[in-house]
Amino acid sequence: MHDFTPLSGLIGGALIGLASALLMLSAGRMAGVAGILGGALTATSDRAWRLAFVAGLVAATLTGPLLGTSGPARLSSSNLVLYAVAGLLVGFGSRMGNGCTSGHGVCGFARVSARSIAATLVFMMAAIVTVALVRHGLGGS
């Protein structure tokens, strides 16, 4: 395992949980990024807070390195078409699954939603299979 940092993971997870709880308490909304972004891109009446949320995600990524965190991960490929197709597949899957990993895994799981627990288990199994294939089955070491 590379760069195992349990303390920063614990702090980051606690901050994500706190932010999700604050959004639910203040706006009565789930912190599912796919739904928030989808609502920000359409003409909804609550578009302002959604745009602020997305802007905060982008700002944290850009300003984090100024505070000593590592910057965004380097791209493993320069094939931008590959990233565009991957992004479209993720978006399609999020719509098909009625939510993304943040909505199901953080908020739905915390609400003990059977649908979110099932979705999170599927996400995790798909991730495990993908890592096993990429690292061990498709020419990995």
Give an account of the 3D structure:
- The protein has 141 residues and is mainly alpha-helical.
- The chain is 70% helix and 0% strand.
- It contains six helices and no strands.
- Helix 2 crosses helix 3 and helix 5 crosses helix 6.
- The radius of gyration is 17 Å and the shape is globular.
- The two termini are 14 Å apart.
- The helix/strand series, from N terminus to C terminus, equals HHHHHH
Q: Radius of gyration over alpha carbons?
A: 17 Å
How many individual β-strands? 0
Taking the sheet with the most strands, its summary is: none
Helix content: over 70%
Q: Which range does the strand content fall in? A: under 5%
Number of helices: 6
Uncertain segments: none
Shape call: globular
Structural class: mainly alpha
What is the compact description of this entry?
This protein is mainly alpha-helical and 141 residues long. The chain has six helices and no strands.
Give a quick set of tags describing it.
single chain; 141 residues; mainly alpha
